[in-house]
């Protein structure tokens, strides 16, 4: 059986404020074309279909289009919910949609109930393990100390129990959305450590022929039978070195496995460049990044004037600007209070400007700071004088009342 493994579509997500909806639509077209051209028998989508629990309408429409196009191919599809999805919303109408060959698995209680497909060599059971938040599913799985490893182990016990009751030679595929030990994370994944230690050992999945993982955005092989497809598109600059792809898995009659990476179309390359601004603007070796989405880290000791405007003249798709000046480190043994001791308000303000910008204020800026401090002092003196005046008036009134008595 030929299986196409993908995950982490994150429909509706932007990349540094750049809409990815067009690129996501292109990916869906690529997915459908791959299914048709490579004679795929089943598609598995291992969670994070949407980027958030309540996705924008355009993302819902794109998902609807994907479902219709996959159903028209007549190729069964199995999907699970991820930690970004609302399991209840994604699973609405699952029974009806299943009649069209699109099988949504979003209920924790159903982890031991597979979608059973058949090829010339017999049955293949597809078990969908949606993202299992330990605190929410501990009672369902009867675990005493809720944690990711405990609930996944309990879910896999149900999978193995069901598989043991099936005909000898039944092959098995598990879809799961989890952080498995050995996987390499990026800046794009939402932290799932709230439910205890996030990582679970790959041994939790022992006993099945293939584990189609979702959650981590880099395509990677944990073991020969446990793999992440990764996201089809980049969602942070930490993914600059990723090769975006899907896994095309051939599952043989006796469970033997052959996997091939199918590249996904990426709208624009990602580049991380670093150095002083003038070097970035002049270095001929950076010409290959002029059409890329760029994250630039400036190391100038003094913050340059209008850095983004100047960068975009050469790199028009610069999306992120970071300032990490190369300066001598401050003495960590000197406390903040010691550094301020004996310094005037004006000197402290000038030091702050120098710390933030890399160079102290010029003469005109010093005058602006001085005028600001003079205005504050004058206002403070005026307020104090007003308080004293009210106190004096109160004292005179009290004396007059005593004389009258």
TrEMBL record:
Key words of the record: DNA recombination, DNA replication, Endonuclease, Exonuclease, Hydrolase, Nuclease
Gene3D superfamilies to which the protein is assigned, alphabetical: 3.60.21.10
GO molecular function: 3'-5' exonuclease activity; endonuclease activity
Gene Ontology biological-process entries: DNA recombination; DNA replication
Pfam families: Metallophos, SbcD_C
Source species, domain of life: Bacteria
Residues annotated as signal peptide: none
Keyword Ribosomal protein: no
Entry keyword annotation includes Metal-binding: no
Domain Nuclease SbcCD subunit D C-terminal: 267-355
Entry-linked InterPro entries: Calcineurin-like_PHP, DNA_Repair-Maintenance_Comp, Metallo-depent_PP-like, Mre11_N, SbcD, SbcD_C
Residue intervals of the Calcineurin-like phosphoesterase domain: 1-218
Free-text function comment from the UniProt entry: SbcCD cleaves DNA hairpin structures. These structures can inhibit DNA replication and are intermediates in certain DNA recombination reactions. The complex acts as a 3'->5' double strand exonuclease that can open hairpins. It also has a 5' single-strand endonuclease activity.
Quaternary structure, from the entry: Heterodimer of SbcC and SbcD.
Family recorded in the similarity comment: Belongs to the SbcD family.
Protein name: Nuclease SbcCD subunit D
UniProt source species: Streptomyces himalayensis subsp. aureolus
Taxonomic placement: Bacteria, Bacillati, Actinomycetota, Actinomycetes, Kitasatosporales
Name of the gene: sbcD
């Amino acid at each position: 059986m030929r299986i196409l493994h993908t995950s982490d579509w994150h429909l509706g997500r932007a990349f540094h404020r750049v809409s990815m909806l067009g690129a996501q639509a292109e990916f869906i077209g690529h997915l459908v074309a791959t299914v048709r051209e490579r004679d795929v028998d089943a598609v598995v989508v291992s969670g994070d279909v949407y980027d958030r629990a309540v996705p924008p309408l355009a993302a819902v429409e794109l998902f609807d289009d994907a479902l219709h196009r996959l159903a028209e191919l007549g190729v069964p599809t199995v999907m699970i919910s991820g930690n970004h999805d609302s399991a209840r919303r994604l699973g609405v109408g699952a029974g009806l949609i299943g009649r069209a060959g699109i099988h949504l698995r979003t209920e924790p209680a159903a982890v031991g109930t597979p979608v059973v497909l058949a090829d010339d060599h017999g049955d293949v059971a597809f078990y969908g393990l949606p993202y299992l938040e330990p605190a929410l599913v501990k009672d369902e799985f009867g675990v005493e100390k809720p944690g990711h490893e405990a609930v996944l182990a309990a879910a896999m016990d149900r999978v193995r129990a069901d598989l043991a009751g099936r005909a000898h030679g039944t092959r098995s595929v598990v879809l799961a959305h989890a952080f498995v030990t050995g996987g390499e994370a990026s800046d794009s994944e939402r932290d799932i450590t709230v439910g205890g230690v996030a990582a679970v050992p790959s041994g939790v999945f022992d006993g099945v022929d293939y584990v189609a993982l979702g959650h981590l955005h880099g395509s990677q092989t944990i073991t020969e039978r446990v793999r992440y497809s990764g996201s089809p598109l980049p969602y942070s600059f930490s993914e600059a070195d990723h090769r975006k792809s899907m896994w095309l898995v051939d599952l043989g009659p006796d469970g033997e496995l052959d996997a091939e990476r199918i590249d996904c179309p990426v709208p624009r390359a990602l580049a991380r460049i670093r150095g002083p601004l003038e070097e970035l603007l002049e270095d001929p070796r950076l010409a290959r990044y002029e059409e890329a989405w760029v994250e630039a880290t400036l190391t100038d000791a003094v913050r340059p004037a209008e850095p983004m405007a100047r960068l975009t003249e050469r790199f028009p798709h610069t999306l992120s600007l970071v300032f990490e000046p190369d300066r001598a480190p401050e003495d960590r043994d000197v406390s903040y209070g010691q550094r301020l001791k004996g310094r005037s308000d004006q000197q402290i303000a000038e030091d702050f400007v120098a710390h933030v910008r890399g160079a102290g204020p010029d003469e005109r800026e010093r005058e602006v700071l001085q005028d600001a401090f003079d205005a504050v002092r004058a206002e403070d003196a005026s307020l104090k004088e007003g308080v004293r005046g009210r106190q004096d008036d109160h004292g005179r009134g009290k004396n007059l009342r005593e004389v009258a008595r």
